[in-house]
Specification:
A 3-stranded parallel β-sheet has the order 2-1-3, with helices on both faces. By secondary structure, the protein is mainly alpha-helical. The chain has 7 helices and 3 strands, in the order H-H-H-E-H-H-H-E-H-E.
Length: 173
């Protein structure tokens, strides 16, 4: 039987910022804020971060934090998991199709499902490659198993596993 170890965790969520906040969250004494708040990414170029969505900013932040904790992680293959991906950008595109019957290329360019992990790869010049997984039938467990399969099979020694979802636009409520 193979064993799997989590060597580091670097969470980021609106309203739960400090390690103390996360301890309270774990005890169910603090909630993640349902807000469009996102990390500042002051370690990136302003031109790079100006058009990033909430999910992309969160992904770049956690990848940064993991690499800060363990510089070797910059060489690991990344596995990105999301239930909805760039849902706010997708909503804007759909809205444009309904209202204007066309898609604007500028809006489409950062709307694809792999955008967050691709931006993290670009921001830190990562060369380990990445995979993107969508939890079929909202089953996170199966998605996690697929993500760690290369570890359990012995084809990878370590991976950088990133899960992210952004606030769902209110109109979907």
């Amino acid at each position: 039987m193979s064993e799997l170890y989590v060597s580091s965790v670097s969470p980021w969520a609106p309203g739960v910022v400090t390690p103390e906040d996360w301890d309270l969250w774990k005890k169910n004494e603090k909630e993640i804020t349902q807000a469009k708040e996102s990390p500042k990414l002051e370690f990136t170029d302003p031109l790079f971060r100006r058009r990033l969505s909430q999910i992309s900013k969160m992904t770049v932040q956690v990848v940064h934090d993991l690499i800060e904790k363990n510089p070797e992680a910059a060489n690991y293959k990344q596995v990105f998991v999301s239930f909805r991906g760039e849902i706010e950008r997708e909503f804007s595109i759909n809205e444009g199709i309904i209202e204007d019957t066309e898609i604007m290329p500028a809006g489409f360019s950062l709307s694809v499902f792999n955008t967050p992990v691709a931006l993290a790869t670009l921001a830190f010049k990562l060369t380990g490659g990445y995979s993107v997984l969508y939890p079929s039938k909202n089953n996170f467990a199966d998605c996690f198993k697929a993500a760690v399969a290369p570890l359990l099979a012995g084809t990878e020694k370590q991976i950088l596993f990133v899960y992210a979802d952004e606030l769902v636009p209110e109109v979907y409520g």
